[in-house]
Design brief:
Helix content is 17%, strand content 33%. The protein has 66 residues and is α+β, with helices and mostly antiparallel strands. The chain has one domain.
């Protein structure tokens, strides 16, 4: 899978969330109708927090090519 942008990061904790975005897209399963080229997406992922702060949810958007 190719993501654009290629990396997703929590703006508050500077934690790399890319793997969570990829997992969320995998959970959505294959598209009903196959479309060549990049497809737009929006997923909600959980940032684990850092430095004693709690987890919180973020919406990530972009495009991906399966």
């Amino acid at each position: 899978m190719t993501l654009d942008p290629g990396r997703y990061e929590c703006p508050d904790h500077h934690t790399d969330l890319t793997v969570f975005v990829e997992e969320a897209l995998d959970e959505q399963g294959p598209p009903v109708a196959y479309k060549k080229g990049p497809r737009r997406f929006q997923v909600i992922v959980t940032c684990p927090g850092a430095g004693g702060t709690g987890a919180h949810r973020l919406t990530c958007t972009g495009t991906h090519t399966p």
